[in-house]
Amino acid sequence: MLDRVGFRQIDIESVLKSGGYPEEAPKIALEEQLLPSGLVNRLHSLYPQYSILDRTTKPLFTERENYTGLRGFRTVLSTLKRNGIDIGHVDERELFVEVYRFLATRHTLNCIDWDNYEQDSVFQLVFPQPGMIRKDVVEKYIAAKTEQARTQVATDYMQETNPHDGNQQLNKPWFKNEDGTLEVLAGSQHKYPQTQLIFDKSTQHCFSFCTYCFRHAQVRGDEDMFLQQDINQIHQYLRQHKEVTDMLITGGDGGFMPAERLLQYVEPLFSDPELMHVRTVRLATRALTFQPEMILTQKYNKMLAVFDRLHENGIQLAWMAHFSTPKELLNPMTIAAIRRLQKHGVVIRSQSPMMKHISLFPHVDGTIDIDKSAQNWIDLAQILGTLLIGFHSMYCARPTGEHHYYTAPLADVVKIFDKVYRSLPSIGRPSRHISMTTSAGKLSLMGLSEINGETVFALKFNESRNMAWMDKVFHAKYNRETNDVNLLQPIEGNGFFFEDELARIEKELAESLKEAMASATNIHMDRTLQVDQSAETDFSQVYQG
Fold it and tell me: C-alpha 245: how far from its chain's center?
């Protein structure tokens, strides 16, 4: 049914009633008026190709809140089979699950269009795909005679997955306290002056596992993962580092942090004059994509109260979401959760990965469809604007995990970004150019330039180990096929302007900690390890909001 201005009139109550959602979430959405008909009808009318805002058919997955590990993956396949769906390539997909793990929520699975799952971005986001892992490894896994032998193939392959690209271990901060004890922050990174990353013990879980995840060491519980137990240690460090303005809580997923523990982190910021320099708390989480119902509960009111206190004390709570497709947004639960957070002073921003098969789309021959890929990002930007979400940035695949499957030539990425940028109004554009992470810093691909008649890539840091590097635009040789910024070559000479200084900085970082450990009267570094997340996960027990 259309009204006089042409919008389809969706019956929100019917959609919520038939959607298979937890009982509490629709109730809160309606009571707090989080799904106004004008907004819902506008978004559905403008973007029907992505929307399930009008869906009233019964979802396939209703029995469990989440499906984890090999057991959970096989349960998902059984449910699909009962509904006449066979996704195939089971052995190859199970190899990926053993190497990188699997976790998908009921919400995630029910957002997938199972009538066209192979082309569905969310399916590509959470399901292992054929062609990800090298053919020889797949063949060895399939040929193994026992479950134990298969697992050993997967375990051996883990050594090749590069979970700490960009020399992340060098970013671990430390300080000496008054009695000479060396305090090493085992669950933190401080690479750029203004921002300190915190991998808290409570945030090591995820709501669903992205198949391209570059932090699979956290997911698997690798022995060299980051894990922060001691909150007081963070505050001690911050008192000595007045340059830090942003506390970034990540994981895993920052959305798992209980309200009581978040309050322990932030309450000293309200009253301690030595911590007044911290102005923003960032929460890096994909809860809005994978588990928005969590926010639509009475239990979550405790967290909302913490957000209120931050807002009242002049500290910004920045919710760093990672939307890369419109499909992740256009469902009732995500929109209601977004609006509930915003009512409590939360500023939501999206920093989005550009991944082939998810937000970059290949032709049949494997080359990138520039127009289709750009349209995905243009539509996403417009939807973010409608929902009052800041479009923070777009970034390239990191050289970790199955990088070859997701990456695209930088030359194509430039074309896509340029089309997105010129197609959007200035207020709706991403706040920075395409970002690529290296040990030297976050490198922006500014576009193409011409020097002496030759096409070149123009580059500029937007974060760097030496922040003065950010002031300089520099150039690299154009290469039509290169998909990794680390492979770019300078247009002249044997190296880029920063490389000698970078080598010195990296050496000094490694040696300074070694020297500090040698001279310390005592060393405090928590070595507690997180368990492997492939075990069955009960979110109601893990998340104590």
Answer: 21
pLDDT in tens, 168-201: 667 888 888 888 888 988 889 999 999 999 999 9
Summarize pLDDT for 512-534 with one digit per residue, the tens.
878 877 777 777 776 554 455 55
Q: Quickly list DSSP for 42-74.
A: HHHHH-TTT--TT--SPPS--S-SEEEHHHHHH
Report how far residue 194's alpha carbon sits from residue 348's, in angstroms, rounded to the nearest whole number. Answer: 19
Tokens 């399916």 label which residue? 123
Q: Rg (Cα) of the chain, in Å, rounded?
A: 24
CB atoms within 10 A of CB 503: 12
Pairing of strands 316-321, 347-354: parallel
- Residue 180, Ramachandran bin (φ over 0: left; ψ between -120 and 50: alpha; else beta): left
Give CA–CA dist 60/112, Å, rounded: 10
What does the alpha-carbon distance between residue 450 and residue 464 come to, in Å, rounded to a whole number? 25
Q: What is the pairing mode between strands 454-464 and 473-477?
A: antiparallel
Residue 435, C-beta contacts closer than 8 angstroms, at least 6 positions apart: 393, 394, 395, 396, 442, 443, 444, 462
- Tokens linked to 87: 């996704």
